[in-house]
């Protein structure tokens, strides 16, 4: 039986072999057992640490983290964290391979037989990042812990680590239970699709869908969602969990990943392709003709669906969305586009903030494929995004059983798209003398400031009147945006234009301003300009 006073924590990972992280925050373990926090810059508050029951341990009881450090190298992250939590007298529900959104969901699910809701959830993953950047994502029923919370955990853990260095072996009083949570979570997704098709048992019968889980955690979507709904599925090469991700980087923002799913759709003559990142908080789709439904197009598609349900609502997006998307949402769909900052947490928190000020918003979405809906607790869930598309398909098929992904493609008709779309990432050399010992952020900010002043003197270029980060400029029939990366010493440059020539003019304007900064590596931009 589970202890009465103890909390229950759900724990899962993204890969059966080795695990990969995401970006709410991650913890890296130094060789000496010390810890450092590399939290996502710009992530905003979701909850406060005192709401986290499992952290309401008295002084000295946070030795669970100490135990994690001690056994880390021997047992791996999952065993270490389980060991630490049970030593602190709390119970662990182990879910095995699971998606990040499911971990949050387990703090909401009412299912006493399976010991849910959990008091907190911990996901071990590197998300779309390389396999050697594993870490933990923490959730309570209020959402994901943010960087302030993680910093607090780390500071407290490091104190406890020092204090308890001599306290010897801890007794394991918590209980570990294995729960097939992904079946519980997936059955809700299945019910949602059935509901939109008038409670038809197999509303996707006759549809052929390829799923590319990038060899991460998304394989459940085939067996536990699509097959029960009657779809014929393909994509087995992408479904077997393999932490080394042998096919491609599991990230719908990645070109090779999108090419892989597109090719699979065409080769299999499928009706639809669905792609997830490693831990299923990002997703994208491909229609039967091989047209990618990702980035601006996926936001346009989701906006069309959500605005049908909530006319006039505000769609909050990240900062690198296109001007065409704004026109589509505002002129075609009658909604409002609020272009905010990069970072899915920023976008979600902004949508929540808007609602609290009386401005109705039901969708927060990033070009990265992260999307969150008010109706789904503002959880950024790639599987739920795809379920919204399936709902649309299933509903349409009750009227016309032969209809396929055209229903979705038609919804983005009228979205103006630039002929040239590029993202060029310019690195800052943090050790360069030109930084004069300052941080790369300060250096990046001074580049942006200089760019702004150069632009103000150019009659062909106009700075966007309303902008929440970086420098966004329109001109030559297109636009560019230069900003600081959320995590890395990098200035990502996005350019969209109707021709390569116009894109080059925009790129040259950036280069002219950037060339004064010798610690900025402009090789990638030069390469683009010389192509
Ligand atoms: O700023 P960048 O380096 O482009 O990274 C931006 C991305 O960072 C993380 O991966 C977040 O999860 C994303 O929401 C965000 O889009």
TrEMBL record:
Domain of life: Eukaryota
Gene Ontology terms describing biological process: glucose metabolic process
EC supergroup of this enzyme: isomerase
Annotated Pfam families: PGM_PMM_I (PF02878), PGM_PMM_II (PF02879), PGM_PMM_III (PF02880)
Keyword annotations: Carbohydrate metabolism, Glucose metabolism, Membrane, Phosphoprotein, Transmembrane, Transmembrane helix
Residue intervals of the Alpha-D-phosphohexomutase alpha/beta/alpha domain: 77-157, 185-290, 295-395
Cofactor: Mg(2+)
Family: Belongs to the phosphohexose mutase family.
Name of protein: phosphoglucomutase (alpha-D-glucose-1,6-bisphosphate-dependent)
Organism for this UniProt entry: Triticum aestivum
Native organism taxonomy: Eukaryota, Viridiplantae, Streptophyta, Embryophyta, Tracheophyta
